Amino acid sequence: MSTSKLSLLLLLFAFLANAGVLHSQELQTIQKLGLGINGLDLAVEIPLAENITIEPAVGLGPSYDFWEDEIIMGRTGFGWALLEPSVHASVYGKFFYNRDKRRQKRKSMLLNSGKFIGVKIKYVSTPLTNYEYHGKTNTLIANLNWGGQRNIGKHWNYSYFLGVSYGRNLDSSYGTFYPGIDLKVAYVL
Fold first, then answer.
1. Is 26:48 a contact under the CB 8 Å cutoff?
2. In angstroms, what CA-CA distances link 2 with 8, 61, 87?
3. CA distances from 62 to 87, 133, 181, 188 (A)
4. pLDDT digits (tens, 9 = 90+) for 16-52
């Protein structure tokens, strides 16, 4: 990824982080540094409506590859390389559906705690290393998921999701569906 593209992504991230107009009474704007099975990221969760947030993020994480797998009758294959870091940029929309029940049961609402249905679009660059396995390329991933988010004290939270993902190799015509999963712990800045 060129430095001009990375600079543009960081500038967009900074703008969205300070967009005070998009504020809701119930949900909070939170900036967080997260670490999970899909890498390290810096994100800001911005309320758009009473139960909806949007979360742009940038970070580093594993590389992906989608290719035509001749062995399995021409189906598309999928690879996830944990030790080959790539730059990631994503936008994650969440619809929280149980915040009223949490409030009635006097459960914590801090740091946007609740269960949600989410849609995530993620761009993954080519690996930052020179090691090549199937020639990893630029990738676009779309994910529909169910998940949850809870606070751990006043400055930490954890989140998880399960869903279905579609990954597409942007440098060729290969793509496939696969199970989407994430587990992350974040420090709220």
1. no
2. 10, 17, 11
3. 9, 13, 14, 23
4. 544 443 333 489 999 999 999 989 999 999 999 989 9
